[in-house]
Amino acid sequence: MSEQWLLGVDLGGTTTKLAFLSQNGEILYKWGIPTDNSNDGQNITINIAESMEQKLSELKLTKSHLLGIGMGAPGPVNYEKGIIYNTVNLGWPDHYPLMEMLQKATSLPVAIENDANCAAAGEMWKGAGNGSANVLCVTLGTGVGGGIVANGQILQGYRGAGGEIGHITSVTEGGARCGCGKTGCLETVASATGIVRIATEEIQSKKNTSGSLFDLYQLNGRISAKDVFDCASKGDAKALFVVEHVAHYLGLALANIASTVNPEKIVLGGGVSLAGDVLLKPVQTYFNKYVFPPIKDYTSITLATLGNDAGVIGAAWLIKNHLK
Question: 5-122+309-323 — its CATH code?
Fold first, then answer.
């Protein structure tokens, strides 16, 4: 029999991504299915099992060709027990035994981890982390997620909430309210949602009613985070102000984390990171300003390279590492 494969699963609120990978982390086949959270989420593991069986059948293979399943899921996860604590968008009750249910549905070994931690592991294994054993990964999207790999292992914390970078209180006392209930979280500043809020407030302040960002807002009645970065790259004053504001607090937060866990590489991913150097350069400047001085000499900040594949690759790494 040829080498057994790994199944990586990245569970999202609307779509579940799946992939068969080699034990070296090469994606062999990947596909997606809708996430069905009806019936208290009972269909999720069943649908994953059925989709896996269907794909194996198409390839004229059986489950014996698979070594196991790694899965990333949103929310804090108890890695040892495979329990997911909070599942607001998935229909499951709190403390849901996800590992047990997926093992029953597939009859294969399963390992469960937080989805952002899986993305961090993916970037560490096959992406911008380039095999480093100490990687901090931050995902800048609708919210701000994060994962920390320390000494080659995911830092999970006491109850699986390690690496919740988006909820570091990063601004002055007060600040905008976050979805978690606090005010002033990094997520309220460095996410796409936060960037749009800051930019909109700046435009509506009427301090300067000119420039390309203002014109876009007047034309469309709204702006996107991409609009902000596009306008900043063209020298728009309002957009540059917003980017500087965001970079200041993101650089500060990264510096504080780096001074604590001492990563070799910091990887920025998610849709906001597509801004590239427009964001990366000022973030690096503020990181260098705030970080413990010796750290800046050997810690690099770079952009993620795996895109939407990071989760399934990290999940495959998870089960491979688990079975060791």
Answer: 3.30.420.40
Q: How far apart are CA 197 and CA 226, in angstroms?
A: 13
Give the chain's length. Answer: 324
**In degrees rounded to 5, what are phi and psi of residue 167?**
-110, 15
- 8 Å CB contact between 305 and 123: yes
Taking 50 as the pLDDT cut, the residues of the chain under it are 1
**Beta bridge mates, 74:** none
Domain residue limits, the chain? 5-122+309-323, 130-305
- Same fold: 5-122+309-323 with 130-305: yes
Full-model pTM = 0.88
Whole-angstrom distance between the N-terminal and C-terminal Cα of the chain? 20
The pairing of strands 15-21 and 5-11 is antiparallel
CATH of the domain spanning 130-305: 3.30.420.40
